[in-house]
Design brief:
Layout (H helix, E strand, L loop, with lengths): L17 H8 L7 H13 L3 H23 L4 E5 L9 H8 L4 E6 L2 H5 L1 H4 L7 E6 L5 H8 L10 E5 L11 H10 L6 E7 L5 H13 L9 H5 L6 E2 L5 E2 L17 E7 L2
Parallel strand pairs: 1-2, 1-4, 2-3, 4-5
Antiparallel strand pairs: 5-8, 6-8, 7-8
């Protein structure tokens, strides 16, 4: 399913890109000096906070995926806003628990498409595919995902560290509702997004740093994050900092992580 690979000129190296900055936070190599520059500015606001948050977010994704595969029997996964591959990837977690799991990744960054091959090496029993599409175009995503996933059966929809790049006025809630409405009962929503509830000053500085790089970033309160889960049944412990969602190891310390996370089932 991956569309034709991008030419190098399709990758804009003159402006930072969220996926590449995130890759830098995680210690990856698929970023450019402009991404590292923004990453360093953000990291300097609160030493170690941004890389720690990025790692905590990945760990939340892994725990949520494993929980849905092992405890709720979900065998289909739709991951929107995939980002640059960082092992273990979602399909590796899902297919280690359920070898026959089917996974569709979605992103619109040419550099992610360039690395899509790394996302497509799964188990012989399962399926992994990549769709090049914009998260703000959910109907196109659903149409293409339906070539691989049976939307009449439960699907785990992952919107991990995505929605803080989509402002309310740009239709963040409509985007989520369109996607969730298209899924079968028993499907799940996995969501993490930034908040300023814990460190408003530092988060505000981070938002300003991203804005200076031409990137929109939105922080939402606990109540605002809750609206994304309207009509769904939240799994325990509800909407919490990502480090507190069913942790499988002691917290690493170093201060709060400014990301809320939650997992819910569609009745």
């Amino acid at each position: 399913m991956p569309e034709t690979g991008p030419d190098i000129q399709d990758i804009d190296t003159s402006r930072p890109h969220p996926a590449r900055v995130y890759d830098w936070f995680l210690g990856g190599k698929d970023n450019y000096p402009v991404d590292e520059e923004l990453g360093r500015r953000i990291a300097a606001i609160d030493a170690g906070s941004a890389p720690r948050t990025a790692r905590a977010n990945r760990a939340f994704m892994r725990r949520a995926t494993r929980t849905l595969a092992t405890r709720h029997g979900i065998r289909q996964f739709l991951d929107i806003g995939t980002g640059i591959p960082t092992e273990p990837n979602l399909h590796q977690i899902a297919q280690s628990a359920a070898p026959d799991a089917r996974v569709v990744y979605v992103d619109n960054d040419p550099i992610v498409l360039a690395h899509a091959g790394a996302l497509l090496v799964g188990t012989p029993e399962g399926v992994t595919e990549y769709v090049q599409a914009d998260a703000r175009d959910p109907r196109t995503i659903l149409e293409r995902a339906a070539r691989v996933l049976d939307l009449g059966r439960p699907v785990a929809l992952s919107l991990v560290a995505l929605l803080h790049f989509v402002a309310d006025e740009d239709g963040a809630r409509d985007l989520v509702r369109t996607l969730v409405d298209a899924l079968a009962p028993g499907s799940a929503l996995v969501l993490s997004t930034m908040t300023a509830d814990f460190e408003p000053e530092n988060v505000g500085k981070g938002i300003a740093a991203y804005a200076a790089g031409g990137v929109t970033l939105v922080a939402r309160s606990h109540a605002e994050v809750g609206t994304f889960f309207a009509g769904l049944g939240l799994l325990e412990p509800g909407i919490v900092p990502v480090t507190d969602w069913r942790p499988d190891e002691p917290p690493a310390g170093g201060g709060p992580v400014s990301l809320y996370g939650g997992v819910a089932l569609k009745p």
